[in-house]
Amino acid sequence: MTVQRQVTFWLVALVVAVALLFLLRGILLPFVAGFALAYLLDPLADRMHRLGLSRLGASLIILVLFVLLFILTLVIVVPLVAQQVAAFVERLPGYVARLQQLAVQEGGPWIEKIGGSSALSEMQTSVGNLISQGVAWMGAFLNSLWSGGQALIGVVSLLVVTPVVAFYMLIDWDRMVGTVDSWLPPRNRDTVRMIARDIDRAIAGFVRGQAMVCIILGTFYAVGLTLIGLNFGPMIGMTSGILSFIPYVGSLTGLILSVGVAIVQFWPDWTMILATLGIFVFGQFVEGNILSPKLVGDSVGLHPVWLMFALLAFGALFGFVGLLLAVPLAAAVGVIARYALRRYLASPFYRGETVVLRSDVDA
């Protein structure tokens, strides 16, 4: 009965937490962002504290520098990206029409030989429908994220509330961790601490390491595509870098966009098209063999498919707040699932041993 009560308690707590998250998703963004920011910057605050600064002073310096950097990025980078995105969306139908035209011109005779003239028209219709559905889906997904992220005051809340929340979290972080640790039942304290350390290692290793990978790849792709003269090269490169937070997704997305633009822009010059392809092949090689092993490592335990599912699911349900929570929750679920699997493999149920109850022994 004790186990049943514990399971019931945690199930009820989980349901209540999910319900509150869903009901309050419109106002949680600056608070969740502030908590995430404090979590990411806490090691830096600890290091500055060990160097002699007070916790208050270290937190204040870190937050001021971060806010200045964020505002500088908002003033310089965002207008450039917005202009590039608007121009790319405006020219996207023309790019799609040109790619279809080239596909018909170059591949039409082969398709007609294989499937006849009807196959060619069916291919054009299918490709057009597929692209239209893909654009519509992406638009709906981005709109859901935007509406979820702008529920309270939007950018103003992020600029005002998030730094304040992060500042107080940084000051009290160690004390809060110690308080929560004191609430743990002494009987299970070591086990909970071990699971918490594994979750922290998974989240910190992936988020901090993958963020560096995104910055390096985004910079490389943007500079490389700009140097070869590709239209919208900076936008495609930075988009690929951001999406590289999900392994392989960023490189694949950037590859498709850049090669499509390169074919329309440079055709029939295969040299520049192959140069565009080579940038992403080289970037993928560096990411897989140098960046990810060094910065992220193999012990994180976040499979790309599981991470992709978590980001899409939480993003669709809770907007931008869901995106912020997806990685830590996915890491926590993964760690707990692996711990439960280890306990199961070490249990008599897995080994097929007979479980002797105390009442049987007394009888």
Description:
There is one protein chain. The protein is mainly alpha-helical. The protein folds into two domains: 22-104 and 149-183, no CATH class; 187-345. Helix content is 86%, strand content 0%. The chain has helices at 2-23, 29-50, 55-115, 117-149, 155-182, 189-227, 233-243, 249-266, 270-296, 304-318, 320-345, 348-351, 358-362. It starts with a helix and ends with a helix.
List the SSEs and their pairings.
Layout lengths: L1 H22 L5 H22 L4 H61 L1 H33 L5 H28 L6 H39 L5 H11 L5 H18 L3 H27 L7 H15 L1 H26 L2 H4 L6 H5 L1
Helix pairs in contact: 2-3, 2-5, 2-11, 3-4, 3-5, 3-8, 6-7, 6-9, 6-11, 7-8, 8-9, 10-11
Question: What is the gist of this entry?
Answer:
With 363 residues, the protein is mostly helical. 86% of the residues lie in helices and 0% in strands. The chain is built from 13 helices and no strands.
